[in-house]
Structure to design on (307 residues):
């Protein structure tokens, strides 16, 4: 699951009940949670998510209870230079600012949770802007004053083409990273729930399957089958979309031959250059598990636009 998936799920479960939402609006130094992280607090004291990994949650719970009780929204700042930071347990060297809003029409409107969910399910990003002078959140741009804008991206997805041994390790690793995983292979003997527990299995031809998932900036496609009839059409389909990461298993020599085949299929040199081949970070990986780790690291780097 991504940073705020559990919070969005709790918001749906607690619909209609009194809540407050805390959001990290800025960070400095070695802050434990990224900007935009949420913590949702129910009126009965239950909560979901985190804004500091445990450092300031108790103080935020107290503030959230006040906001739920009718107090105005607040922006609280914690840092090692402040006595309060040590009192609530933030001695790690970082600083954070956390906004606490009521989940209401005057704060974070409950309908925004539905709009966020709809956009994510459609594979679109959605930005919610909050006026920091009033605590009111809106989908419309706020033209004046200090504004906090939080972008909600679609869930990350990995499409693995080729139900081979490396794919088994990669699928398990992707699941631990909270990435929705699909294994694609038209060979039914390879594609079994016993070999790939807990992931989606797709036995369509890879070009058809990849195109059906319309891969975008939150999707990675990795081909592992070593069968050109399976891998090459999948690569063509992936390169026809703004796929975040496209990787192909094989040696430098086999990748050079792959480039020639794809060019003959009409794929432009610029598109072919998007392929990470040989796939993964060069960490001297040996064996399926280490190769899977190198692939996952390269994929995460692409998701963060650091490649």
């Amino acid at each position: 699951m991504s940073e705020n998936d559990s919070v969005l799920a709790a918001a749906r479960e607690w619909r209609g009940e009194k809540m407050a939402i805390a959001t990290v609006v800025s960070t400095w130094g070695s802050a434990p949670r990224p900007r935009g992280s949420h913590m949702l607090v129910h009126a009965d004291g239950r909560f979901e998510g985190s804004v500091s990994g445990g450092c300031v949650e108790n103080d935020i719970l107290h503030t959230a209870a006040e906001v739920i009780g009718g107090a105005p929204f607040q922006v609280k700042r914690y840092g090692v230079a402040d006595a309060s930071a040590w009192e609530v347990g933030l001695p790690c060297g970082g600083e954070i600012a956390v906004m606490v809003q009521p989940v209401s029409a005057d704060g974070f409107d409950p309908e925004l949770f539905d709009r966020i969910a709809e956009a994510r399910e459609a594979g679109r990003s959605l930005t919610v802007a909050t006026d920091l002078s009033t605590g009111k959140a809106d989908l419309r741009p706020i033209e004046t004053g200090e504004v906090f804008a939080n972008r909600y991206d679609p869930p990350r997805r990995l499409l693995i083409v080729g139900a081979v041994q490396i794919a088994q390790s990669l699928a398990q690793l992707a699941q631990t990273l909270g990435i929705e995983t699909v294994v694609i292979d038209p060979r039914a003997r390879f594609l079994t729930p016993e070999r790939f527990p807990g992931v989606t299995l797709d036995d369509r031809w890879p070009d058809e399957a990849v195109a059906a998932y319309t891969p975008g900036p939150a999707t990675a496609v990795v081909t592992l089958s070593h069968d050109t009839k399976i891998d090459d059409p999948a690569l063509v389909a992936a390169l026809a979309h703004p796929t975040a990461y496209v990787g192909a298993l094989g040696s430098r020599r086999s990748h050079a031959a792959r480039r020639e085949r794809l060019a003959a299929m009409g794929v432009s040199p610029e598109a072919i250059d998007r392929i990470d081949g040989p796939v993964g970070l060069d960490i001297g990986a040996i064996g399926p598990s280490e190769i899977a780790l190198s692939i996952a690291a390269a994929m995460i780097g692409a998701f963060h636009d650091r490649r």
